[in-house]
Design brief:
There is one protein chain. By secondary structure, the chain is α+β, with helices and mostly antiparallel strands. It has helices at about 5-30, 45-55, 100-110, 160-165, 165-175, 175-195, 240-245, 285-305, 325-335, 345-355, 365-375, 430-445, 455-460, 475-485; strands spanning about 60-80, 80-85, 90-100, 120-125, 135-145, 200, 210, 220-225, 230-235, 250-260, 270-280, 305-310, 315, 320-325, 385, 400, 405, 410-415, 415-425, 470-475. The strands form five sheets. An eight-stranded mixed sheet has the order 6-10-11-20-19-18-15-14, sandwiched between helices. α6 crosses α8, α6 (about 175-195) crosses α14 and α10 runs parallel beside α11.
Amino acid sequence: MTDSPENIESERGLVAERNRRLEQIDGMRRDGTNPYPYRFDRTHTLADIRSAHGGLEPGSETTVEVAVAGRVLLKRDQGKLIFATLRDRDDEIQLFVSKAVVGDDLFARIGELDLGDWVGVTGTVMTTRKGELSVKVAGFELLAKALRPLPDKWHGLTDTDTRYRQRYADLISNDDARRAFAVRHAIIASFRKTLAAKGFIEVETPVLHVEAGGAHARPFTTHHNALDMDLFLRIALELHLKRLIVGGMERVYEIGRVFRNEGISPRHNPEFTMMELYQAFGDYSDVMAITEELFAAAARDAIGTTVVDVNGLSVDLAQPFRRVRMVDLVREKTGVAVHPSQPVDELRALAAKHGVRTEPQWGSGKIIEEMFEALAEHELMAPTFVTGHPVEISPLARVDRNDPHLTERFELFVGGRELANGYSELNDPVEQRLRFEDEQRAKEAGNAEAGTVDEDYLRAMEYGMPPTGGLGIGMDRLTMLIANVPSIRDVILFPTLRPEVLD
């Protein structure tokens, strides 16, 4: 924030207002009133009242007594009447305060409320002559005095950095923010319901890993003092979940935070939420079907429809998703058939022709992936399963049963964003060791995102892992899709930001 005359004046006004409210608190305490009481016994939420009495005729009064609590958002004084808007988590309702009912003292105390104060009130349910559902206040208690004024009711927090940094203030003033997080909650609840019906067990696996495996990503490192050893924050949930498949749990999933020490963008946050599941005796076709079912159910449960907006295009998530191989998408964009069996120099030249950067240590499969990402990925608006990833970029996936250079792997793209990744899991411990060793060599050659040889995971595989299908879904990006918001920061309550400089 710059020290412009407007900002300096605004800061002076905030200090003066805060001091006024502090003086008000001091006065309450001198009078024996605790401005921050310990509890309030609420009998109804505001949604309860609206559900039970939303159909009351205008000008109706009931004998239904309620005790409600919430934050005061609006207040207007009309002589011997005060009207205030109270909001709790799920709804808003009007408070109707009559001096004739509550008496002079209580009426004056209610009149001194500031917007943002938390209050508990008792009274009866009624509607005004205009039909506004209200609580006719009989009793009142201040529950928490707000020292800072609320953001402007009509404009809210307009600066996006402030919105993400002060999420508490954003949630108070921004209906869209509250809606996005309600959608997120509904999506996660929907996933749990769908997977429970399919016999999946929800588990928790370690966040601190000895080996950073299960994905291509740069990890965060930390140090365990008691054991005097470096550890990694997990970059994926995969390898521990597959250990549980080895142990005979057959169908497991986890919804958990993962951490990748990478850039920040509208699609990326260094910590984000993944759902990973593993199903014994299945393959990637099974988890593609589960993916379609999860997406459709989540949209239906969260927003009441399976039709979502994808960059202006209406897409029905209940329809089967398109399936196409990565090599075929590259061929569509370059006009040249590509395959990981081709000489690497040939593919490097094709990439250069289309302005795609490559690294000297990359093999044919990696170059094909780079061409796909640069030329085709951003155009995949409708849900599309991209399949047939090269072996080189898929160290944990099984080789395609019809093509030894490709794997039985898919990534799901919607709106040009990857939302899911799955495959027929590699369960041959000998081949898995060779793949890990390839990863280790790539890391030693300078690829910081490559994996290492995880000896404990190999030991687990040597006990025998049945045929298995695995799936990972980015819950933040899925919420972006269903809530129709543009940035991952809109669906993470406290996104990663540079430290704030406070005076």
